[in-house]
# Entry
Amino acid sequence: MERAYAIALEAMKLAQAEMESVLPKPRFVRTGSGRRGYRFVERLPQQAIFLKSIRILSAIQSLKMLLDAGLLLDAGASMRILDEIGSEVQFLAAPHVLGSTHEDTHDEFLAEFFQEEFDHHDVLKSTQKRHRVSRRKIRSYIVRAYDEGDASTHHDVLRVIDNTFSGFVHGAAGHIMDAYNGESFVVPASRSHSPLRDFHDQFPTYLHRAMMDFALAAKALGCEDRFNHVYRVITTLFSADGSLLQQR
# Structure
């Protein structure tokens, strides 16, 4: 697993560098709250896809470190982040990769994504509100755009994936109970702890999906050679169902 992880990480970092090179550079600007910082002022969908890819790259490394440290509750939260960000990459990339219809929900998503948290220098006087595109709408678009057989079943599968690890983010009781070993709550968990072993078993699937999302992002940004490279690495490391191939 360690060798496959290192190879996958290198492929994603190379893709990151190439995607970054084809985009307009961030500019150092003053935000609505009066603070200064780097921003993509053009607010292009390709820039949103790239930034979501950066979040995936961070989350997959966080997941690996948290699993190695036995912090399964936080690992579950990272899995939830990867589930959500991955579906957002698919949602944003579809019009550019598949020629799917660019809908009003894409404009709504981009407006909210690039929106600053505060619009007043005194944050207590800020009137900014977020109007997020619902997960249901994103799932529905993905099902239509990628047209994977039974639409109803595919939608339900995406909903289950979205919901499985939500409790780790929101601190649901049932999810926190995974830290209990039958005698006491142990943080971090020992490597023999059953829920932690289950998470370790799922890590290759999350690595595979992260790479697939990176490949999709590269293609959406017109980095065809990099897309082909990431995809070749995927087929070298993983079987068609996303399971890790035996490494020599």
Notes: The first strand starts at residue 27 and ends at 30. The radius of gyration is 19 Å. The CA atoms of residues 44 and 66 lie 33 Å apart.
